[in-house]
Please model this.
Amino acid sequence: MLKHVCTLNKRILVYFFIAVSCLTAMPSAAKNIHTFVYIPAGSLSDSLREVANAYAVSFSSNPSLIDDKTTSTLIGDHTLAQALDFLLIGSELTYKIQDKGFVIFQQKITTNNETLEEITVKGIRYSLARSRNLKHNNKTISEAISAQDITDIPNTNLAEALQYIPGVAITREAGEGRQVSIRGSYPDFSLVTLNGMPVLANNDSPMDSRVQKQRDRSFDFNILPAELFKQIHVIKAYSADKIAGGVSGTMALQTINPLDNEGFKFIITPELGYNDYTGTGATRYSSLISNTWNNWGVLASVAYTNRESLEQGANTFRWRNIAIEGADLSALTQSQAQHLTQGDYIIPRGNRYSVWQATQQRFGANLSVEYKNETTHFDFDMLSGFLKGERHEYHLYPRGDQSTPIIKGLTTVTDIQANENNELVYARYENARVATESRTQKINTAYQQGVLSFSQQLDKNWKINAILGNERSKYDIPYSNKIYTQGISDVTIDYRKTPFYADIKYSENLKNPTMWQMHHGDIEQYNSNSEYTFAKLDFQYDVNSLITLQFGADWTLFENEMNNAQQNDIFFNEIADTPQQLTDLPVSYVSSQIAHKKQQWLKINTNEALKLYGIDPFNVQTNNFLITTKAEHIKEYSRGAYTLLSTEQEKWEAHIGVRYQSESITSYTQAPYSPILYNLWLPTFNGSYFINDNWRFRAGLSKNYSKPLLNSLNFDGSNDTPNSTKYIFNSNLKPYLSYNSDISLEADFSGRSSFNISLFYKDLEDYIVTTQAPLFEDSPPTTSDSQLLWLSNAETAYQWGVEVSLNYLIHNSDWGINIQAAYNKGKVTYYDSNSGTALFKKNLPFLSKITASSMIFYDHPKFNFKLGAIFRDKYLVRAGSLLLDENETGFMPTTYWDASVNYYFSNYWKLKFSAFNLSNEQERQYSNSTLRAYNSTTSGRTFYLGLSYQY
Model:
């Protein structure tokens, strides 16, 4: 069935492509741009504010000219000039429309003594209008948020500013948004551009369950402050003139430019923060200064955050059928003892209580130089930032045989209970193994980008655009070190009342240092560097007033390198004349961990303690222990060329194009460095039909692709010796392909309310999975019981969804609501990574069936308030890779509540308050489709109070 749907989708794309090519030749009158507005009778001052909101501009006036005047009701489809003409009838006032707004003055000549006060239209309605205009002016189905939305929506970083966009979902780390997915797809399938060029910057998670040292193609949005950006455009339907490479969509980020605001502008905003778990001490500062001189402008902006974070929770090493050996089972029934020794029960391993503490400094700076006249636009942007800090994590858990509490020959199991799935949800152990882990990490992500963009109107028909940019990001972990201790205690593990958060009790005083022995240590260093170099040249030719032809080319070089060095299992009892008991350490090296809400235990100053064993915690190479190293190096060349034909008619517009993409990907980890080569043709169509003044219908058909994941390009050498499996590199690997169909119905009522519903369908081909590799002449030698595996484009998948959004401003009121929801469905067949065989069909990775957000707001010129909720349904992260423990893992549903308040003392001063995670939501990661406990954490509520000055 899926095969027939896929073929039909391709045929529709081809036929529609040809049909619209013919339609573009049909002549008609040019379309006039109007906005439907409804402004009730009232004061002229309020009516002008409503006009400014509707057209997303500001205005200037002497307040004494407009305060005592009234207007009649304005309703209908009007240009800005027509709306102003109507409102100013009989007022003896006139206006002048400028680039950023309009000026109101008396019809007589204004004297030099008269003061014009700039009335900056601010607030939620203004930002909604700006975002609506960005969306409506785009040729494809898209969403947008403007600068004021970015800063006024409660957010601690750029990721959280995106979560109120329909179809956008985020993942979180340490209480902050980190990665972003469009339409429920894998984050790697979303292309991110910044100032017109593709970018990549990686951070990671300190948690094994959320994947540490993750190398991927997704941009980590927690690296850069939100205050540096003027707009974010989420492009969901692909067009040939855009950079290709994101099957789920493109997130186009744009930093602030000086000519966005004429004249001198200065903003400074200090903020103080508080968190439930860490207390006070968080600080945020942002500042912007810009000025314009005729056609020139210069802008500098900076933002800095210093905070502490704390996540605490309970987790397992997953669950497994384990045959218990060497334990006293005499207290159990005969049946219970038999099931335990036969391995019939699925037993939770690890059963940890954990605390992750971190200090974090985030900094971003942007410098922009801009020139613009009637024919020329020049812009140079430099962006620099870093995210750095230290992480400390502390774990308490039973760590005996096979990560159970069992000490062979010593432990007694006194009671157990299993559920209907044969999972051991309760057990009591005497004389069991208990252990602690103390870990310290230093992290540093540095980011730099420089982009030069140029636009020139050559004559009345020809225009040229050019972009040249370079981006570099570097992620370093100079050290990541652990120390383990162990002791003996009675332990009870109980999942019966709280399945995702075990109640774990110990008989011993865990803060007594005499019960702990020093066991072993691990040390590690890691770094990953990425660089993009990008160039793009576009030409635009206006054939006539109805038809425009665009064509151009772009070139991209991407390079990524990774190095990792580890020294693991350094057993302290093998190092002579060193501390073997915790009491042998200096007292200053040991302290109590008191942050966890369930239990307290001892923690260790890891780096200082390692020195007592002759271990250099900061340089793996200087230590006399076995070093395990891993290095990876990838280089990619991408070359694209496109043409796009556009026409704008009275009732409809169409944009039809095709892109040719040629790429070379070389993994220098895989000797003899055979490159992956492929060429693609990507046809696109995007069109709109204006049903009437309020309703607009859009449609899009396109083909797009996403490159193989970075970990797919370093598959060789990871051999599974126990299973007689060898993994080899596939130099014939191709990208993921997507054939996309999009339709959208948009409505805009009186500039006060808007409604949108979108439907989409994607055929995903050449989906990459692990399969058995064919034997070639140069294949590694195998035996009869061994097998070769590789990654290949062996699967197909599909995805479809519906997105709905509503912005409603209550009539004759300052109140409004913003609601958005998305429904997604998509399946793919997962393969066993140990055998290369097909297993089962499940949801696509990261796909939540339902995502939604709602916001209620009050918007007055002096005061505004927002209360919002963001819901994300359960989603799968990976499946088929660890069948011994689970068939899948993912996250349970979450609902986050945020709020913000802004009070304007004047046009210059604003008091702002923001609150995040008001419900202290628990992030619950599950193991297996039976929803076993894996990792559950909370990070506390966060509040910021600030004062902003703007001149």
